[in-house]
Automatic annotation (TrEMBL):
GO biological process: carbohydrate metabolic process
Organism listed in the record: Candidatus Pullilachnospira gallistercoris
Domain Glycosyl hydrolase family 32 N-terminal residues, every copy: 9-292
Gene Ontology MF terms in the entry: beta-fructofuranosidase activity
Transmembrane feature ranges: none
Keywords, comma-separated and alphabetical: Glycosidase, Hydrolase
Coiled coil: none
Designated name of the protein: beta-fructofuranosidase
Domain of life, source organism: Bacteria
Record's signal peptide: none
Family designation: Belongs to the glycosyl hydrolase 32 family.
UniProt-listed Enzyme Commission number(s): 3.2.1.26
Amino acid sequence: MQTERFRYHFEPKRGWMNDPNGLIFYKGEYHAFFQYNPHAAHWGQMHWGHAVSRDLIHWEEYPIALYPDEPYEDAGGCFSGSAVEKDGKMYLFYTSVSKEYGQTQSVAISEDGVNFVKYKGNPIIRKNPLGHDNFRDPKVTKIGDTYYMVVGSGDREWGQVLLFSSSDLLHWEYETVLFGGKEYADCIECPDFFRLGDKYVLMFSKIKEKFKATYFVVGDFVENKLVNYTIQNPERGYDFYAPQTFEADGRRIMIGWMYHWGKVARPGAAFAGALSIPRELSLENGRILNYPVREAQHLMDKCSDYVIWKGDTLDLRDGLRRWLTVRSKDIRSVDILEDTKSVEVFLNGGKQSYTYWKRGK
């Protein structure tokens, strides 16, 4: 049986978890919801698990927030989504999956951030305006007086992010394709859209991608279009997927799923999957940096200096698996955050990061 636990990464007490959902700072606490199968250590009918923290490091697992208990959720459950606060209430937006309608978008509302009531008018978006079956993972943000929702979509030929707008969070109007391309075919998953400094960032994950699976499109948002953008991949590890961000005390904080779709839990395992260490995002000369939040930096206290010379390489491994090899000319600093089952490496203050789940763990 699997007994080894993380020291400072959240993982469920039992069952399978994948994408972080609904990240939000609400009434003085950090809330992290997540895709969850409480019945086994593998993917299944999706619920929304729930964890709460006061410091981003120590998490308490709460009761399940969303159960797949409606007819419009009978063929997959409650897929990924996001959280927004409005008038003191927490709104959870998620993809509801049914046999009759396929992937649609729904919402649940809470007065306390713990107990949620699904909106009687669900699904609030019943059809992909482009007609594709893949239509999931709504992320809602407010820009000015308007709420915007980005949703992942695609087919075998093309992947795209769709943009919707609303004034009340319940009635949504389709605007446009915000971003897309044939190189993202099948489906763009878990999109996120937010302002960072003087730029707007569209972040998303590419299904079936092993490395560089998370993309950051950094540019300007003009008349519902992303323009003058660059595409970046600051995280290149194998075991980091479907990150989501939220804003708290002026910081843009990102948390990803540590694991990957090709990984199978050890025989007899009671749980699988975890959340990455929370990371603060910043911009430096137009380039995305991701680095552990200040609450986690004591976990990386310097224990030694290691000098390498020009032309050398730095080879990081645990005896079973090579995590990373980098040429010395590219390195100014290396910070390593190691837990019982994972390694997160940050180069040059977060200009590049690599996340790995230790082999055999």
